[in-house]
Amino acid sequence: MDVKGTPIEREPGMWILGVMIVAALMAAVVLIGGYAEGWGGHLRISQGAVPLGATSGTASATLNLTIVTGQMMGSGSLGPAYVPSDFSVPANSTVKVTVTDFDTATPLTGAFTKFAKVTGTVGNVMQVQGINPLAPNTTVGGAHTLSYLAPSQVAHTLTIPQLGLNVPIAGQSRITFVIHTGKAGSYLWQCMDPCGNGDGGLGSPMGLKGYMAGTMTVTG
Fold first, then answer.
1. By C-alpha distance, which of 75, 96, 59 is closest to 219?
2. In terms of residue numbers, what domain contains 210?
3. Are 86 and 214 in contact (CB under 8 A)?
4. Do 7 and 75 have their domain in common?
5. Per the structure, how many domains does the chain have?
6. Any idea what DSSP says for residue 148?
7. What is the mean pLDDT of the segment spanning 68-87?
8. Between β-strands 173-180 and 58-68, what pairing exists: parallel, antiparallel or unpaired?
9. pLDDT single digits (tens) 32-77
10. Are 31 and 46 within one domain?
């Protein structure tokens, strides 16, 4: 059968373009779905701490947190959120924490500017690396070790008053810092950047568990 002149043969460029569009859509679904699937504390992102073994006789671990935007979470979201919001780390250990933030800055103002200072981490410092939110494994600019972040650059904070821990999180960046944990217990953390609704930005999702507040459990 003579099949010359069929639409597929006459328009190979259109067929290839169609394949590329489908592939791009699938990639977008994988990226967003990885954050949105199972919202409600069951997002499929690294949960809790991952043991690394012993370092100088002290167990070490890593903890990976992600700040997703309300848009990434989909309809019905109250705003940006830490994922996971409840997490565990081992007691009497050195823990390397990485926070990847897809959100943009909500500048600290007034009395809240005090939360621009890093406290409670090893050396009272953190490392800041810019990221491209559309390609989060791609870095933007160089990494910087800081003890203070300009209030205009702060998007959120990770603050645990009981432990004297405060880490300002830069917008669209990857923040890395190290903490030493003590005895077992549960500690409430909260974002202290007014990133919510209502007067002064103090409404939800700020202070709402599952969004900008949660619990760090130190396990014995």
1. 59
2. 41-219
3. yes
4. no
5. 2
6. B
7. 91
8. unpaired
9. 333 333 333 323 333 344 443 333 344 489 999 999 998 898 888 8
10. no
